[in-house]
Specification:
Layout: E1 7-13, H1 17-25, E2 33-38, H2 45-51, E3 55-58, H3 64-74, E4 79-82, H4 94-103, E5 108-116, H5 124-141, E6 153-156, H6 159-163, H7 172-181, E7 188-195, H8 206-233
Parallel strand pairs: 1-2, 1-4, 2-3, 5-7
Antiparallel strand pairs: 4-6, 5-6
Helix pairs in contact: 1-2, 5-8
Length: about 250
């Protein structure tokens, strides 16, 4: 908890039994709730997450976006933090990101993967793909984001009512940023963080997911105005905050 605001961390996982234990073990004390979304895993991801003290939500329909939307629906915090279950996003960055969000009176922060503490270089093809997608986003929406594909975000829970994300796939990452950064009532920031080495096998298909995301950017540009008007009429319904103790606190994690 920070300044009487509850912090929820949402982590989508598909076969991440190796990584999720390491991620949960590093969760900082200010986190009140950890929601792990088991996205049709066939390994021990759910079992490992429960053993570490996380609340596990099962989402049988595969998809990055579907998993996140299920997690958002179950999260009870005032502030929502997202990250992957593979160790690439450091939980130790959460306190600083939350501090900046609240003290600077922001609504949405996306974390820019800046530098690896281990000195490991990113894959050249991933760097190239991210650069192409980020440049396309800038040209289409006039918003400069260095890391448009980052999967670590920190935002006020009420933001979801204003932007109404819809994507069921990897494009959710772009969609959230576009909707937030182009919203006239939201204050947003891209903030650098360290990144870690991946634990386990990557599920990303670089070429397929890259082209899908590129096509999504063009589609989003053509439909953004219409979506914005629709969102103002039919906002997303989120569960109300309760005063019950959080199911998972960082102090309960190993």
């Amino acid at each position: 908890m920070y300044r009487n605001l509850r912090i929820s961390v949402v982590i989508p996982c598909h076969n991440e039994e190796e990584g999720i234990a390491a991620v949960l073990a590093q969760m900082p004390p200010l986190v009140d709730e950890v929601v792990v979304v088991d996205n049709a895993s066939t390994d021990r991801t759910a079992e490992v997450a429960r053993a570490a003290g996380a609340e596990v939500v099962y989402e049988g329909r595969k998809g990055y976006g579907r998993a996140y939307k299920s997690g958002f629906a179950h999260a009870r915090g005032d502030i929502i933090v997202t990250m992957d279950g593979d160790g690439t996003y450091p939980p130790e960055s959460i306190p600083l990101l939350v501090y900046v969000l609240i003290e600077e009176k922001l609504d949405f922060i996306t974390a820019r993967r800046w530098y690896s503490k281990t000195g490991q270089a990113k894959s050249p093809i991933r760097l190239f793909g991210n650069a192409i997608l980020s440049a396309t986003l800038m040209c289409l929406f006039f918003k400069f984001l260095v890391d448009s594909q980052s999967g670590m975000w920190v935002f006020k829970r009420d933001v979801l009512k204003k932007i109404v994300p819809k994507s069921d796939g990897m494009a959710l990452s772009e969609e959230l940023k576009i909707l937030a950064f182009t919203h006239r009532d939201l204050r947003c920031l891209e903030m650098p963080i360290y990144y870690g080495e991946r634990i386990g096998t990557s599920k990303l298909n670089i070429w397929r997911d890259g082209f899908v995301n590129l096509f999504f950017l063009v589609q989003m540009r053509l439909t953004l105005g219409r979506r914005r008007r629709a969102a103002s009429v039919t906002p997303i319904v989120l569960p109300e905050r309760t005063e019950e103790p959080a199911k998972v606190r960082a102090s309960q994690l190993p």
